[in-house]
Design brief:
The chain is built from 28 helices and 13 strands. It has 888 residues and is an alpha+beta fold.
Length: 888
């Protein structure tokens, strides 16, 4: 990197963008609600990192999106940490483009992996114009632009909050383009890393939430995971959308990875994401994830069929190797999955999750069996198969006697058998050469089935063992029937270890689904109400689209972020939700309802908290909340407020991640109007229970909330103060002198009025028919390019297409992009799909480009899909094929 002074128009343009991003980023950092000086320093450090790492950081921004939303702590919703991150990366990146020259020159255009054609650029620009018009119309619909940091969903700044994500993506695209021109391989490596990391962080958040608040194996509690997505404070499907976008990338990684350690990590990420998907209890996710994974797998298989198992994103020629790793026959895959599902269904009702784990061990032994390298007489084969169940019967008989005498004996027996089977499979992984080896493996595998039965018998107290034992016997008999041939298990055992690992992962997923369906009452309830919920969705869509009155609203939309306010003002009266507004200090009396005295002014800022007009319950209340670090001893609250009508105030402190409370201490009190005068309400909440907030190693968040248990109530609150006898004051910014800093709002269970609940209908409502047509055109173009067009041979194309399609399936029943972070992820992946292209496979001619390109290290490098694969090397050596030398 060499520093230069800008001399071209493009350099001056990049410098201007960098300065604009710097001014905006520093201004937002200085107004950050918590430690603004520290945030400014952090922002500057990220901008410096963006300057020196501009070829890497812009592509990695999506990786951090799931974990950089801190609105429940800061109170910010119009602007957020994602804005600061993008502005910092852009400020540093554009400054680097303007003031430096890379030591590498761009590769020739035909070897570039990322390029937006002129037609696509025009389409992106016109859609961006549509988004800008929607933001402007949103301001107009709200009564004009009234800037403020603390505005809610029904105020003007919500239009900017909902519409800025596409602009943030457009801000990064030139940096992606320039980085790809210099190092084309970075697009594949960094983009895949970013989306896999985003999926991993999302899944870990869901895992942590379930572990701390419900337990990992509890599928009956009415509790839906939200992970790190605070945008679900009023419902929505932010978690669903993030999972839909990311799971195909983890699948593609597992399909392509040839190194054992990384393959295991890829399977681990897949399993974590499957668990997160399962605990959403979302029917849309249950439909979308299989569809997205299926498309990803089909496109990957099409690339393999073309001999392009891993075409190089950096432009090097694709070496076509013989297909040496046989794929597992579909019949075998279906048979193993069906047998696992049937056995899991039987065993779970008796032995619970322990029996399921034992079954998973048996499946692992089955899939670890090596192939036979020698043939022996058919009669001998059949004799071995007939004798193989005898050791299993002996294990069942002896184990049945021991499990009553030896504590945990069933687990010990099953674990030893599984380890023995896996050890023999590893010891003879090169192939079976003797009949006794085949007999030993078959006997151990059937013995593991008996071990799974012992685990179920021990856990279930020997109740209802007949059906489970019969199912295990059927599995053993079915396997014997399929092996009635000279080569024991030859069809199954010729599959590569990667295919077996994927099949075992699928079996674990089947076990998890069975456990959730048979052991979780909540998921059954969700499935049983599908028809009723769909009819409710249809009615909601009808009401929402009925809010578009004039022709210009149908053509151009109501405006960005205007659905909550439009529904509150024009929707059904009994579905109006609560609202929160910050009031500036007043020195003059304010207007009052007819027949009442003028409103007494308050010298400081206040908030107006209204409750909805819908049926009120504990989960339906609109809450003003703040996170508190710890609560102990006796707890009391003091609230200074006034009301024009009678209402009922509720103050509570609960163990709560985002929406669903566990233990709470609370108190309610009726509030009388008193002529609109200010009054001080003192409440005693009681004593915090022992261990409130959970243990130190698995703490539960404590959230203090103020709400109204009264339909149509209106409270103006001047200050809130909570204290306990151990820590003293618990609330910060209780007088709202810092606006709504540290305050947050939520509605646990009443969500429909906040969302259109359909992605196409949401785009139609905000941007009209013109915007919807452009949006559909972008999506169709992106899917076409990745599936059948110019990007179909790119290594990322299967995952990109699968992620977009899964996101669209979830979006059939939820708005998704009304959450800015999810909208950013979606538009980032959409832009990537529109820019991906398969580089030319022609070799670089001598003298073309520059020797400083690093072509020796960049272009001939093979993808991990084929590089250093032992089975590939062995097959090539056996066939007398020499690996071609890299082109220079």
């Amino acid at each position: 990197m060499k520093f230069v002074l800008p001399s071209r128009a493009s350099s001056f343009g990049a410098l201007a963008i960098s300065l604009a991003c710097t001014v905006a980023g520093l201004w937002l950092s200085r107004h950050y609600p918590i430690e603004p000086i520290a945030m400014t320093a952090l922002w500057a450090a990220i901008a410096v990192a963006g300057f020196f790492g501009w070829q890497v950081l812009p592509l990695l921004v999506p990786a951090l999106v799931p974990v950089i939303g801190f609105a429940p702590w800061t109170g910010w919703i119009t602007f957020e940490e994602l804005d600061l991150l993008v502005l910092a990366v852009a400020a540093g990146g554009y400054a680097a483009l303007a003031l430096t020259v890379s030591s590498h020159k761009p590769v020739p255009w035909r070897y570039r992996a990322l390029r937006w054609r002129a037609a696509v650029r025009v389409l992106l620009a016109v859609f961006g114009l549509s988004v800008g018009i929607a933001v402007w119309r949103g301001f107009e619909q709200a009564g004009g632009l009234q800037f403020g940091f603390w505005q809610g969903f029904q105020e003007p700044m919500n239009s900017l909050r909902a519409g800025k994500s596409f602009a943030l993506v457009l801000l990064l695209l030139p940096l992606w383009q320039k980085a790809s021109d210099l190092r084309p391989s970075a697009v594949q490596r960094l983009a895949r890393t970013a989306w896999v990391v985003a999926l991993l962080l999302t899944s870990l958040g869901a895992l942590w939430e379930r572990w701390v608040y419900t337990g990992l194996a509890d599928f009956s509690t009415d509790y839906r995971t939200t992970s790190w997505f605070w945008e679900m404070n009023v419902g929505g499907a932010s978690l669903d959308g993030a999972l839909a976008l990311g799971v195909p990338f983890a699948l593609l990684w597992a399909l392509r990875e040839r190194r054992a350690g990384r393959f295991v990590v890829a399977l681990g990420v897949l399993l974590l994401s499957f668990y997160a998907c399962l605990t959403t209890f979302s029917r849309g996710v249950y439909l979308a994830i299989p569809i997205g994974m299926a498309l990803c797998a089909l496109l990957w298989a099409a690339q393999r069929r073309l001999g392009l198992d891993a075409p190089r994103a950096d432009g090097s020629p694709a070496y076509v190797y013989p297909r040496v790793e046989p794929s597992l026959p579909l019949a075998w895959s279906a048979g193993v999955l069906a047998g696992t599902a049937a056995a899991a269904w039987m065993l779970f009702g008796i032995g619970g999750y322990r029996a399921m784990l034992a079954l998973a061990g048996s499946v692992a032994v089955l899939l670890a069996m090596p192939h036979a390298r020698a043939a022996w007489p058919r009669g001998q084969t059949r004799a071995l198969l007939v004798l193989a169940p005898l050791p299993a019967l002996l294990v069942a008989l002896v184990g049945g006697l021991l499990i009553d005498v030896l504590p945990k004996g069933a687990y010990l027996i099953d674990g030893m058998l599984v380890l023995l089977g896996l050890g023999l499979g590893w010891r003879w992984r090169g192939g079976l050469t003797q009949p006794w080896q085949a007999f030993a493996l078959a006997a151990v595998w059937m013995a593991t089935l008996a071990g799974a039965g012992l685990v179920a018998a021990h856990w279930g107290g020997r109740r209802d063992l007949g059906p489970a034992a019969a199912m295990l016997a059927v599995l053993a008999a079915a396997w014997v029937a399929t092996q009635w041939s000279p080569r024991v298990g030859s069809d199954l055992r010729t599959a590569g270890w990667r295919i077996r690992g994927l099949l075992w992962t699928a079996c674990l997923l089947v076990c998890a689904v069975v456990a959730a369906l048979s052991g979780g009452a909540y998921i059954g309830q969700r499935m049983s109400t599908g028809q009723q919920d769909f009819e409710g969705r249809l009615e909601h869509w009808r009401i929402g689209l009925g809010l578009l009155h004039s022709m210009d609203e149908w053509l151009l939309g109501k405006g960005s972020g205007r659905f909550p306010a439009s529904f509150a003002n024009g929707g059904p009266f009994d579905q109006r939700v609560g609202e929160l507004r910050l009031n500036a200090p007043r020195s003059e009396p304010g207007p009052a309802p007819a027949g009442m005295p003028a409103i007494e002014p308050f010298p400081g800022p206040t908030i107006t908290l209204t409750s909805g007009l819908h049926d009120m319950g504990n989960g339906e209340m609109f809450r003003l909340s703040q996170r508190v670090p710890a609560v102990a001893g006796d707890v009391g609250a003091t609230v200074v407020l006034r009301t024009p009508f009678k209402s009922r105030l509720r103050v509570e402190i609960c163990e709560k991640f985002l929406l669903y409370p566990l233990r709470c201490i609370d108190r309610e009190a009726d509030v009388q109007p008193q002529g609109g005068a200010w009054q001080t309400l003192n409440l005693t909440l009681g004593r915090a229970p022992e261990g409130f907030g959970g243990p130190a190693w698995a703490p539960r968040r404590l959230i203090a909330s103020v709400t109204q248990n009264w339909r149509g109530g209106v409270l103006e609150i001047a200050s809130i103060n909570l204290v306990d006898s151990v820590h003293g004051p618990l609330i910060r910014n209780g007088d709202f002198s810092d606006g709504l800093g540290r305050w947050f709002f939520s509605s646990d269970r009443f969500h429909m009025p906040f969302h259109m609940k359909s992605l196409p209908a949401h785009v139609l409502f905000e941007q009209g028919l013109f915007g919807l047509a452009l949006w559909i055109a972008l999506l169709v173009t992106a899917l076409w390019r990745c599936a059948l067009g110019a990007a179909r041979r790119h290594p990322l194309a299967p995952a990109v297409a699968g992620g977009l399609l899964a996101f669209l399936v979830v979006g059939l029943f939820d708005s998704l992009i009304d959450a800015p972070r999810i909208a950013f992820l979606f538009y980032a992946l959409l832009a990537l799909a529109l820019g991906l292209r398969t580089p030319s496979r022609k070799p670089i001619r001598e003298g073309e480009g520059d020797s400083s390109l690093g072509i020796e290290t960049e272009l001939p490098e093979l993808d991990s899909d084929l590089d250093d694969a032992p089975e590939v090397r062995r097959a090539m050596e056996a066939a007398g094929i020499t690996r071609p030398a890299p082109l220079r």
